[in-house]
Amino acid sequence: MKTLLNIAVALCLFSSTIAQNNTAYWQQHVDYTMSIDVDEKNNQYSGKQTLVYTNNSPDVLQKVFYHLYFNAFQPGSEMDVRSLTIEDPDRRVGDRISKLSPSEIGYIKPKKLTQDGKKVDYQVVGTVLEVTLREPIQPGAKTTFKMSWDAQIPLQIRRSGRDNAEGVRFSMTQWYPKMAEYDFQGWHADPYIGREFHSPWGDFNVTINIDKKYTVAGTGYNKTNIMGDNPYKSVELIKKGKKSWNFIAPNVHDFTWAADPDYLHQQLLTDDGTTLNFYFKNNPEILENWTNLQPKTAEILRYFNENIGAYPYKQYSVIQGGDGGMEYAMCTLITGNRTFGSLVGVTAHELAHTWFQFLMATNEGKHEWMDEGFTSYISDKATNQVNQEFVENPHTGSYRGYTFLANSGKEEPQTTHADRYASNRAYGITAYSKGAVFFAQLGYVIGKQNLEKTLKKYFTDWSFKHPTPNDFIRVAEKVSGIELD
User: Fold this and answer.
1) What stretches in the chain show pLDDT beneath 50?
2) Which stretch of DSSP H or E encloses residue 254?
3) 410: nearest Cα among 400, 402, 418
4) Which tens digits make up the pLDDT trace of 298-342?
5) Are 71 and 108 in contact, with CB atoms under 8 Å apart?
6) Through-space distance between the first and last CA atoms of the chain, rounded to whole angstroms
7) Which domains can be identified in the chain, with CATH numbers?
8) What is the pLDDT of residues 373-402, one digit of tens each?
9) Which residue of 99, 136, 334, 458 is 20 to 30 Å from 84, comparing CA positions?
10) Which DSSP state fits 120?
11) Rounded to 5 degrees, what angle do the CA atoms 157, 262, 294 make?
């Protein structure tokens, strides 16, 4: 009997091991074709979307989920409640959502949704759209969703919206119905409560119809300029006084744009052939800083190319907008009324995010320290060199931050979901400072040269994918030959 029990236990352990390692890496794929018509006077727009979804998983999908991020900017939303009840609310949010009027709230309202030409049932729950499929999506199969929707652009509160503090008219981030990520852990249809995003890779073709006085910047390649002024013009658009802007973005997992009638657009071609675009308000007070920023950005890009891996796209845009600094595909939105040092610092940090989260696309909600921490580590090194500061340890600020948290009695596990920390301070220090300290300390364990090799190998193995903490650890183990459990 004892022998049979031992055999049973052994078989259970063996089957458990197999169950955790029975699938080769895979990731889903989405292709978006979208067109929107913007009513800038009423801060609203209507949209049409065709989404081709490829199920590369071994699973049969009975449902899909979309994110409707703009719905967070309504009184009573989970983002609103969190900001009203957390001990240290983000000052940019505070109680502002609770005070939004009907014309100031944000929303995305689906009007019609079909799967392969047939209507499907769906339900909106806060910032998530749950879709029950007419036909399950089989492994390896494709299906086409078509959706039309109406939306209202919220007053700028957090990242996205209209009329930010510096007068930028539209900062359009997380503005479209976005397919949620499905991976080896299942669906990641998290509500939009505070921060961070996770979505599948794909190709985007986006057309934005907006008043002709606006200049539009964003993700992808601006085919409007390449193909001549307003190549998609129609009699109807001309009557409305509008212009069509068309952007093509290959192999990205998000699409962002911004628009303002007073944008200046300047360009700089780097040594490696990347076109750097700079869009900022026509304000004499910031012109000198934004002009001087351009060669610095080229130096920072060169540093990341040499120390992580080559930037794979042909353009990158630094755009004035948003509420601070936030990374997006092939661009960043940053506030522009800053000192020159601050402008260089925020640009370095957001540009570094191109590698950490936009090329090595971790799940920011679950592993925010791999995103913000790794970015903080490498951007501190970049600015130290580009600004010729030559500080012996450019990570001292991260060490100070983490030491403070460790001694505060409020440190939480690094596996805490980004939206579930008890305080914003605990999240911020864990994600940025503790994440950077992790990377710096790894250098003491495996050696500086092995750390540099690990970083480049990590990029080679995991760019355009969705790495987990274990994937990074395994790269470091293979490079160094050291067991890092």
Assistant:
1) 1-21, 226-233
2) none
3) 402
4) 999 999 999 999 999 999 999 999 999 999 999 999 999 999 999
5) yes
6) 36
7) 25-253 (2.60.40.1730), 262-349 (3.30.2010.30), 371-480 (1.10.390.10)
8) 999 999 999 999 999 999 999 999 999 999
9) 334
10) -
11) 90
